[in-house]
Amino acid sequence: MTGPLHSSSGHNAAAGGGGKTIEEMYQKKTQLEHILLRPDTYIGSVEKHTQTLWVYEDGAMVNRSVTYVPGLYKIFDEILVNAADNKQRDPKMDALRVEIDVDGCSISVYNNGDGIPVEVHQEEGVYVPEMIFGHLLTSSNYNDNEKKTTGGRNGYGAKLTNIFSTEFVIETADGRRQKKYKQVFSENMGKKSEPQITKCKQGENWTRVTFKPDLAKFNMIHLEDDVVALMRKRVVDMAGTLGKTVKVELDGHRVPIKSFCDYVDLYMKSANCDRPDNFKKIYEQVNDRWEVCVSQSEGQFQQVSFVNRIATIRGGTHVDYVTNQIATHVMAFVNKKNKNANMKLHNVKSHLWVFVNALIDNPAFDSQTKETLTTRQGSFGSKCELSSDFLKKVEKSSVIDNVLSWADFKLSKELKKTDGSKKSRISGIPKLEDANEAGGKDSHKCTLILTEGDSAKALAMSGIAVVGRDYYGVFPLRGKLLNVREANHKQIMDNAEIQNIKQILGLQHGKQYDSTKGLRYGHLMIMTDQDHDGSHIKGLLINFIHSFWPSLLKVPSFLVEFITPIIKATRGQTTKSFYTLPEYEEWRNNLGASASSWTIKYYKGLGTSTAKEGRKYFEDITEHKKDFLWVDDQDGNHIELAFSKKRIADRKQWLTNFQPGTYIDQRDKHVKYSDFINKELILFSMADLQRSIPSMVDGLKPGQRKILFCSFKRNFVKEAKVAQFSGYVSEHSAYHHGEQSLAGTIIGMAQNFVGSNNINLMYPSGQFGTRAQGGKDAASPRYIFTKLSHITRSIFPKDDDILLNYLNEDGQSIEPTWYMPILPMVLVNGSEGIGTGWSTYIPNYNPRDILANLRRLLNGESTVPMHPWYRGFKGSIEKTVNTKVAGSTYTVTGIIEVLDNTTLRITELPIRRWTQDYKDYLESLAPDTKNKDKVPFIEVVENKNASNCVHKFSTVINAIPQLQLFYRMSHVKVIMKMFTFSSH
């Protein structure tokens, strides 16, 4: 039998113990001894700390450096909070008095209201006051099922103050029992006097705690000024958080704060010292448990918060709860106001100063020092939902101005990272042909030629062979420049073209340029095609400079353009050059019948000119170079008119006032910016409208009309490759754009899957695209064939051809102004397009419904309203809105069936919700092997699709009982994206 183990000698040194005995190494302490030995666990550090804190001095809040001992501050706070807690126990409490006797090193805290029961606790055998203040781990707050909004909870509280005091006196009057109690503790709660029980009046209720901190334990010899200032600030806190029903006194004087709003004003007054613009607060008492105030902060988040009158100097979940509401609203508002801001919550929070006074059920903190609330939001016991009025006031406050200013600064700082500089050599910019003198002492003589693409660069390089490389550089643009006025910050930062131009010219963001001395080039020359798109590129470059460096446009001869003919007319040895189409058309119309004796060559782009012509242009460079001229602020106004989203209404009026035949007289050597906008760029805008918005007469856009014209001209009944036919159309209809674009239009006219054409005018022979990808999966034009559909000539009768008004271009008869189909094709196949100033969207309608209404019209009868209709679509289309302003809005719904409690079957998708995109969406709802935390909605996606039918899916759904999905089909349809909307 084995007995208890014994050390061979209690006095032997323990192995590795440095000579210490087992008894010396392993010791048992009483809880009181442990608290005194390890005070930081209970009251925080007992060493001096220096940090910047708010203190109360001379009637004002002051934010300054403070040296204090956190533990000493904490034992004072425990008594103060304990006294304030009585307000929750007895709402009749109306007095809180604090006296800090610096000379006597004594602190007294008094409160009226129900006192502590002066009665012996039957289980412990001691009076209740002694039990509360002199016995550890005693509390009235241990029942977690009872919701309390007091500060104490863990049974330490005031006992810690007793333990760290040389003297601790508790006095209380119990008016119900008519007993007054007094007891003195000393020597760190090591000694206590017998309680003195005397009589008091009926209804006399109060409690007073007087203590003398054991300063030696805090490495102090007297109550230092900084500590006293902090204590006084906490008394003022109580005045602000208890409200007007409690009179708070400090050292015999009433604290002049009657509400939380008054309390916040102390901080505002301090912050507004020596400021030209005062901080202003926005206050709301949300309910009887929450008071919230917000103001602006300078660059970092600030908070002043209280939970059950405890000062949570490091905030916590209650502050996060309130701040997130404010920051989320501000973030959305600012991002809407400045789309480039891209503000995040943490960006906004750094500009907020939030004040919170909250009552929380059974609050939990990160430590006994109670600096941070950790209670979860769902356990607060109440809600703090800020009103719309409060948030609207925030929208109009300096908080918004502050955040917007910071956003502008942040964006400007990021843009400055891409700044150029005046240096003689730069590298890393593909296709740049830099002038030899660029960035040098003669940089002001240098000209950078920006060309429209590589072919235009080749022409410019041919010309530079004449003028030399010393003062001319060339850089090709890749298509159209970004409209920076409406682009977001990321788009600008990611746009290589914009950054390259800044580097080449040496432009610096935000710099005011009165001359070009700080740039690598003294002149910027635009060399684009003379067509409408070339004018648009010029306009976009002007818009770019005006958006960031408007002063540069005012520098004489900085911005110039190099013009080349768009048309050359030749007869014998005579050649005439025309730089705009309206100019050429005016000349041709004046010639009348003799115009046919001239040979016309259309210069689609600069690439049409030969190298010889290029050299000739530069030999006569003064004839081809035109300076842009800034006259007044109207020039800037017109640039904004053309490119600002805010000026859409003005832009519509601008286009409405357009007069055909408008053009710039190229004999002038200067072009006013306003003339460029109103006489050249407007031609692009009109052309953009014509090719983007269909005719209401035949429902066709110009490209579609040219295709139909050439199909009729060719009697296109035998199949030909789309690529070949697009070449034919380009040749016979004076089509001046890319044949690839024309091929795309032909493919679109032949498509017949659900959601495309109700009547396809061209016949699709081959893979012309499917519903899977909305037609984007069509084969290459060189692999597929087409011809006129059999029905097309029935809709566009041949007998009508001689009645049409045919256009003429370069002496060539081309398509008519419009066709006159027997059915309004703009309704049959619908149409959508976005032009300058205007856009259109018309859904498809059933040709049979249209035909029936036409017959009604012919018979003098009233027409019947029609609903959108798409050939082959099996879902539903229902009208939801019909107003004069918004027009008609329809909800387009697919088909979804519930097979059982876990399975859905989808047999139809809404119009224009393409199958592949929808499959990708379903996959996003399925389990993610890379993200284990994701809660999947779908477990399995089973694909059962036919070739040109909508894919049929069987999906197994995770049960989500709280939504009761299968009892509310509307929820299922929303989650499964079974709706689209159509408006016209």
TrEMBL record:
Tell me which SUPFAM superfamilies the record gives. Answer: ATPase domain of HSP90 chaperone/DNA topoisomerase II/histidine kinase (SSF55874), Ribosomal protein S5 domain 2-like (SSF54211), Type II DNA topoisomerase (SSF56719)
CDD domains, per the entry: HATPase_TopII-like, TopoIIA_Trans_ScTopoIIA, TOPRIM_TopoIIA
Q: Which residue positions does the secretion signal occupy?
A: none
Per its Swiss-Prot or TrEMBL entry, what cofactor is needed?
A: Mg(2+); Ca(2+)
Domain of life from the UniProt record: Eukaryota
**Could you mention a single GO BP entry for this protein?**
DNA topological change
For this chain, the family text in UniProt reads:
Belongs to the type II topoisomerase family.
What is this protein called in UniProt?
A: DNA topoisomerase 2
